[in-house]
Amino acid sequence: MAAATLALLLVTLAALHGAAPVLAVAGDPPFSCGPSSAEASEGLAFCDVTLAPAQRAADLVSRLTAAEKIAQLGDQAPGVPRLGVPGYKWWNEALHGLATSGKGLHFDAAVRAATSFPQVLLTAAAFDDDLWLRIGQAIGREARALFNVGQAEGLTIWSPNVNIFRDPRWGRGQETPGEDPAVASRYAVAFVRGIQGNSSSSLLQTSACCKHATAYDLEDWNGVARYSFVARVTEQDLEDTFNPPFRSCVVEAKASCVMCAYTAINGVPACANSDLLTGTVRGDWGLDGYVASDCDAVAIMRDAQRYAPTPEDAVAVSLKAGLDIDCGSYVQQHAAAAIQQGKLTEQDIDKALTNLYAVRMRLGHFDGDPRKNMYGVLGAADICTPEHRNLALEAAQDGIVLLKNDGGILPLDRSTVTSAAVIGPNANDGMALIANYFGPPCESTTPLKGLQSYVNDVRFLAGCNSAACDVAATDQAVALAGSEDYVFLFMGLSQKQESEGKDRTSLLLPGMQQSLITAVADASKRPVILVLLSGGPVDITFAQSNPKIGAILWAGYPGQAGGLAIAKVLFGDHNPSGRLPVTWYPEEFTKVPMTDMRMRADPTSGYPGRSYRFYQGNTVYKFGYGLSYSTFSRRLVHGTSVPALSSTLLTGLRETMTPQDGDRSYHVDAIGTEGCEQLKFPAMVEVQNHGPMDGKHSVLMFLRWPNTKQGRPASQLIGFRSQHLKAGETAKLRFDISPCKHFSRVRADGRKVIDIGSHFLMVDNHEMEIRFEP
Ligand SMILES: *[C@@H]1O[C@H](CO)[C@@H](O)[C@H](O)[C@H]1NC(C)=O
Q1: 198 lines ligand 1 (CB under 6 A)
Q2: What's the number of domains the chain is made of?
Q3: Is position 294 annotated as part of the catalytic site?
């Protein structure tokens, strides 16, 4: 105790004196079954590394008393000292870097900070799954390193958030990879593979958790709160919009956890939904891992949703549906009574605990000292490394989207920018870099700092009291703008407008931002440069058409190196290549009830639909929009070898008539796994950088159907590839096309079919027709 107190005191003193945090007060990580432990010497099966994790878990569970078992069912699980099992914290967060929003990660000793990557929506804008993989790997290494030095009481991480960004007002849309199910699926796969580590080893670097299954995308709108919202979701939308990222997460990436949402889907809370948790996630998708509840989701089944009449009913229905652990203490409190009342059995609890302990086994927590395993060498020196810091910078640079660049005002030549006015509430606010679910970043380069590294004479004025901008210093801002060579405005949103628990009611810039921007633009010598820091989209129609606003950038919430990334883009040390991962809707969209979950438009009632796949109204910017300093061209090239899709394979299949619409189609299930393999073919896209700058470019390939009847999307992204090209360089990019995956559509009844007849591969305006013939 005394040693710990002294260490804490030293750390505090170091902090007070601003000294570098070099104190080596690393602790020991918690573990079981060390060579000198009684459990190992007695040869207890749960310590036997040669047995399968589930077998070891079952052995451990069989040794627990009923009371000990019940105590393990909350995110803060006490130790079982008589078996050498330390306490465990299941709840840890690492959305875009290690975060302190959970319970188990601490930055208070040898390690004081971790790498803060951009908020996910900006990272998604890079359309680059290699980048997403490397970010996952870096976060996984930092988590394991933090554990090894004794500053993590758990390695189960409740990230990523792969819900579809369905409505632009959603406060947590910023945490997601955007509105498209294919992008969200590939993000999920890359991030989970990265963070969970070497997939050929049975040892998990960390355990990832895909959340929140499913159809969760509303915080609090017009008096409807996420805790009691009953989402009406069609089978079609579930199958082709809300569920695909979760399926990919479990099936392809082998995520070891899925979190169920608060959402009551068609009346049944997700965490009480046996069809979803046991039928789909564990059954159809084959989850090898555990199911966690969103925090207090079990309690709200009784308190807010009135789904379960008593606490014991809520506990019983969840555990029986397939939940394994409650985030909260509700199950710990009420499980004993549920058993007494005959609503729950000890076998139900054993099932949950076996799933839970099997993951802890796979994390190596029962193999003796974890510093001896394949991740054991990771330590304090593996956190905030130069590589990770550079990756945070790279991710921000690659995500930034150039929305407007009139007359090529950007990039700027630093030798001509002798003085600059930097105006805006987001110019010098470290919190705007790290958004939500953050920990202490290794460094914090705000946009103001970033610009100061390029321009000597910089004058800064926040201009607004905060991003809310209910008070603006317009006169001062106008005076400053008129006196400097160049004017940079850093505007947008903050967590006060969009966050967990808070949706927006307007898509316009908050408060007096718009009038401030316009006044500053009027007063400045040259067209101004507007940089938006925000998660969700904003309606900036006024700025699109204002000739005094020369350039607009969307920079998301760009992470610890965000300010430098922005400056590099502005001054041409990086050629922007980000593309919007969400549709930017106009303010008129806010007439649509946020509670209307339907993706498909309903012209009879004037409902416009959602996302580029279905939305029929006006946009401010379209999904996939983004400019470059170079001109790129893309085309589908001949030589794309389309196999005989009228092959004997399909001829042999009985085509299925769809009674409601008369369309002729094949069921994907009927084609079968092997048939689907045989149908695959490559499509080639030639992409050229016509200059003048080197740069990355992301090619997006879509599929278009001949019509949009029966809920067919207008188009659907089926692939994307990001490629760096020197000025003048050409490359051929290969897209592997799987008709079962990419040409299929989901019918109203939730079944996947491939239509007989024409389909069109699309890259820009280039199309290639592919026909399926019986
Ligand atoms: C991954 O794990 C396998 C099996 O344990 C091991 O042979 C291999 O060397 C590991 N790869 C890396 C890159 O650590």
Answers
A1: yes
A2: 3
A3: yes
